[in-house]
Specification:
Beta-Lactamase, 19 helices, 20 strands, seven-stranded mixed beta sheet, Chemotaxis Receptor Methyltransferase Cher, domain 1, single chain, Rossmann fold, alpha+beta
């Protein structure tokens, strides 16, 4: 399989990374290029260079591009056999190995619109019972797509989405409404949704069940190793890893041992230490009471903006820098955080505070964008639980550091580092030539491993294409439903007009601006002996009926011009040849804007009196 990279595409990826911080450098190229090319077709551009120019001119395209890359194809109980195995074999083991009352933690990585996370919740609720579930289970669901996370938090799904839920679970854990079914509120409260980048953000730790289904297949080999190392760190003792049907680990890493390869369930290898290590902050010793003023002065004059939120969700403290940065006044201290603008700007604080409190460990948010005096700045936010040496929680400290200048210096440093690495690689080339002989001896084994990796990669690529086709099929089904609705509306309208024309006792004829018959009522057919099929589509003045149609040309033209025409009596003969007086009324047919779109002729006949 060729690994040659397209320079134009790589330059486009670098631009996207620099412009919006979206780093796709470690995603698999074939599927990634397909998603970019799909957006290029929609935008009407042919080359990667033209698409870059389009992105610069249309910043909103970045959001559409992100949605195209993050294929949110998911569902309740997707691959039912695997979930049935999980419910019967794995969930009971997790419950059994946890002492009564001890918290059970699960993580749904790449949760999309939340179906997978709520599937996990239903399995544990069914195994534990509602009361024990509410007290013991906490499920963390993460994804990169903010729009998908917003949908997941609503927990509202249509009938098609819930088809995969077993009937007994659907009746137990869903509440029906006008716009679909909603997951029961006590189930929703145990699921915490948040944004997490599997390549750059710290993993959630000490989880008993980690579910990541068909997420790894979008990453390259090195990125997969990074994510798997973080997954290994995330699993607690006796924890289980549940992957998608297209993903296997036996040829990639020794960090995990298989529990059931058919259903892609693994556990951490106890003989190998995880590659990721988190850091814990030591509690700060309390200062003597006599230094209270020194402590308060230090807090107030700190160089970084700092907020302290108490356990009741109120703003307990805000130093000088924080009040200036977030436009807070001294009267805001003591108010509920949810009532203050800072609770959601520059980032949503309450969910992160809840996560910090529940995990009792620091939480970091990098490169938060925030406008200060018309200039875009980058802030690093650190959420730290404030607790005593005995573990009693007092609140959460939030520190904002302005790292705009530091990020710039770091980028310059990385550029210098890359130049040094290039020089070092040139020096190493001589050594690599000496090692060529040894590499040739190993080539046979590497070729076998490469073949196996290529087969696995092909399988993952096919699965990716299947995801894309499923997404496209869902779009086509939606369009088909809309077209069916519009057809029904048109049929209904036509039936309504036909009913109206049939119910009018007078003969009614509708002409278009060219005096062509567009409607011919049943009364007109009965009066003149010409059926609607024969009359409609014919030039009215050419019809051979007992009515002298030539005399009606000028009144009809006047009606087309919007004029009011008095009823015109005209001698005629009905379909039986009987002489009659036809009273012809003319009225303009008006469009939606009031402009004439035709003429309506109403004909009423009376017998002609014959003199003796």
């Amino acid at each position: 399989m060729s690994t040659e990279l397209d320079p134009g595409f790589e330059e486009l990826l670098d631009f996207v990374h620099e412009a919006r911080g979206f780093d796709y450098s470690q995603y698999k190229r074939p599927s990634l290029m397909r998603r970019f090319e799909k957006r290029m077709q929609t935008a009407g551009v042919d080359t990667y260079e033209d698409y870059r120019s389009y992105l610069e001119a249309e910043p909103r395209e970045f959001a559409e591009l992100l949605d195209a890359i993050l294929i949110n194809v998911t569902g309740f109980f997707r691959d039912p056999d695997a979930w049935e195995y999980l419910a019967k074999e794995i969930v009971p083991k997790i419950v059994e190995q946890k002492p009564d009352g001890e918290r059970i933690r699960a993580w749904s990585a790449g949760c999309a619109t939340g179906e997978e996370a709520y599937t996990i919740a239903m399995l544990f609720a069914d195994a534990l019972g509602a009361e024990a579930y509410a007290k013991r289970v906490k499920i963390y669901a993460t994804d990169l797509d903010d729009d998908a996370l917003a949908t997941a938090r609503l927990a509202r799904y249509d009938a098609k989405a819930t088809d995969g839920v077993p009937e007994n679970l659907r009746a137990e854990y869903f509440e029906d409404g006008n716009s679909g079914s909603t997951v029961r509120s006590d189930i929703r409260r145990s699921v915490v949704f948040g944004r997490n980048d599997l390549l750059s953000d710290p993993p959630i730790s000490k989880v008993d069940l980690l579910v990541s289904r068909n997420t790894l297949m979008y990453f390259g080999a090195q990125a997969q190793h990074t994510v798997l190392a973080n997954f290994s760190f995330a699993l607690g003792p006796g924890g289980f890893l549940f992957l998608g049907k297209a993903e296997a680990l036996h040829s990639r890493t020794s960090l995990f041992l298989p529990v059931d390869l058919k259903h892609r369930v693994f556990t951490r290898n106890p003989g190998i230490a995880p590659e990721y290590r988190g850091t814990e902050l030591s509690p700060v010793a309390a200062l003597p009471e006599e230094n209270r003023r020194l402590r308060e002065s230090s807090f107030e004059s700190g160089p970084s903006a700092q907020l302290v939120i108490d356990t009741e969700g109120r703003l307990a403290l805000a130093n000088t820098e924080a009040r200036a940065l977030f436009n807070l006044s001294p009267t805001d201290v003591g108010r509920p955080l949810q009532d203050l603008e800072v609770s959601y700007r520059p980032l949503e604080l309450r969910s992160r505070i809840d996560q910090t409190i529940s995990e009792r460990r620091p939480l970091f948010e990098r490169d938060v964008q925030f406008g200060i005096d018309g200039t875009e700045h980058q802030l690093d936010a650190q959420f730290t639980p404030l607790q005593s040496t005995g573990g009693e929680l007092f609140g959460v400290s939030i520190v904002f550091d302005d790292v705009t200048r530091a990020r710039g210096l770091r980028n310059e440093l990385e550029g210098a580092k890359r130049e040094l690495e290039t020089a070092y690689e040139e020096l190493q080339s001589t050594v690599e030539e000496l090692e060529t002989t040894n590499e040739e001896l190993q080539s046979t084994n590497e070729e076998l491993e490469t073949t196996n990796e290529e087969l696995q990669s092909t399988n993952e690529e096919l699965e990716t294409m299947n995801e894309e086709l499923q997404s496209t099929n869902e779009e086509l089904l939606t369009m088909n439903d809309e077209l069916r609705d519009r057809t029904d509306e048109a049929v209904g309208a036509n039936a309504f007009l036909s009913s109206v024309l049939t119910s009018i006792p007078e003969a009614v004829v509708v002409l278009d601006p060219d005096l062509v018959v567009t409607a011919w009522s049943s009364a007109a057919a009965d009066l003149w002996g010409v059926s609607a099929q024969e009359a409609e589509g014919q030039f009215f003045l050419n019809l051979d009926i007992g009515l002298p149609v030539g005399e009606l040309r000028e009144p009809a033209r006047a009606a087309l011009g919007g004029q009011e025409i008095e009823s015109l009596p005209v001698p005629a003969h009905d379909r039986r040849g009987k002489p009659v007086i036809a009273s012809i009324s003319f009225a303009p047919l008006l469009g939606a804007g009031g402009d004439p779109r035709g003429a309506i002729l109403t004909m009423k006949v009376e017998p002609m009196e014959v003199s003796a």
